[in-house]
Amino acid sequence: MSLEDDIQQRSFRNLQHKSTVNLLYTISWLNSQISPYFKDSGITSQQFNVLRILRGQNGKPCSLKLIKERMLDRMSDASRIVDKLVAKGFVTRTTSDEDRRSVALSISDKGLELLKKLDFVDDAGVEVFKNLNENELGTLNELLDQLRGSTKRKR
Prior knowledge:
- Helix content is 55%, strand content 6%.
- The chain is mainly alpha-helical.
- It folds into two domains: 14-118, Arc Repressor Mutant, subunit A, CATH 1.10.10; 119-155, no CATH class.
């Protein structure tokens, strides 16, 4: 189905407008495809992202600033998300004796167990892209990087 059919809009001001609407609509669609996997786990996709960041630290504690820098949704309130994960026992927070403002965050054993149960989400994410071949996926990633100004055009 086309974007026009999905949102029942026949025209756009220009291609940039259509592309913006298409990306926003696709982000919402993608979230709706993946978010049900978190329903039974008691966490949100943003909390899942924070846990994965902490697991990627390989046991080395990190700061809230590092988590904010690495989050996929940088508009999220990382402090609130971490507080909820600490309350659920998935994250531990350690305050420095030398500097009470310095807080180190680590994933707990309980958090690691939860992520192990949710590792299938990566495989489920692959299913979302089943309609695209390897070349199309490469082009999609290249275009998205280019859109954000992350790479120079290689063609």
